[in-house]
Amino acid sequence: MAYHRLDINPNTPATVKHFIRRHVDMLFHDVHCMLRLPMPAQDLGAGCNFAAATFLLDLISGLSTALYSEPGGSGAHFKGVLEGYYPWEMEPTGGVDAKTGPTALYRIFRNPLVHALGLGKDSVGIGKSSLPEDLIEELELSATRPTTGSAAATIMLYPAENRMDLLVDGLYWGVRVMVRRLTDDHALMAKVATQLP
């Protein structure tokens, strides 16, 4: 088994399709490899939890500039692409949604990870499994959110502890679905096609 390329709409304009196939897929493939870690038997003891989370949040930021391209600054782009295209409706009941999720990802996770090595005023954790290839394949091919393990949600809330955890496996699945939904927006893709180099 190997990395499965992003599922994109077959009618995606050629320039956008080329950009996704030659550039964006390569970046997701990197995360695919990080999802395998740790692998103690191969002397790879690090899980890359923070690295994978930071990289996925950077991917959202990059996608919000390259494939979303709506008015506003980088924070507005980041939250806007998540509000409009991320599969929040598949989050577990009582969790985050299209109103709370984008702000949490931006303010509580992305900004502290990018600007302060993950140190912020909120109590957070970064969860990631060490997945075998068949479970990563399931994440890459599933149109619906997996219901078990750390892919069952993007963010888990722990109200009694006043804490929330970002689940890398769930975020990986959700951002892949977000890319498909972006390419399903034909008017947006036609606009993006004129702006890509």
Secondary-structure blueprint:
Layout: H1 14-34, H2 49-68, H3 74-85, H4 101-116, E1 123-127, H5 133-141, E2 155-158, E3 163-167, H6 168-184, H7 186-193
Parallel strand pairs: 1-3
Antiparallel strand pairs: 2-3
Helix pairs in contact: 1-2, 2-3, 2-4, 2-6, 3-4
Q: How would you explain this protein's 3D organization?
A:
The structure is a single chain. This protein is mostly helical. It has one domain. The chain has 7 helices and 3 strands. It has helices at residues 14-34, 49-68, 74-85, 101-116, 133-141, 168-184, 186-193; strands at residues 123-127, 155-158, 163-167. It has a 3-stranded mixed beta sheet with strand order 1-3-2. α2 packs across α3, α2 runs parallel beside α6 (168-184) and α3 crosses α4. The radius of gyration is 16 Å and the shape is globular. The model has no long low-confidence stretch (mean pLDDT 92).
- Figure out the total of helices: 7
Average pLDDT metric: 92
Please mark out the parts with pLDDT under 50 across 5 or more consecutive residues, or reply none: none
Number of strands: 3
Helix content class:
40-55%
Q: What is the beta-strand fraction?
A: 5-15%
Largest sheet: 3 strands, mixed
Q: Strand order across the biggest sheet?
A: 1-3-2
**SSE-based structural type:** mainly alpha
What's the domain count? Answer: 1
Radius of gyration: 16 Å
Q: SSE order in H/E notation?
A: HHHHEHEEHH
> What would you call the shape?
globular
**C-alpha end-to-end distance:** 33 Å
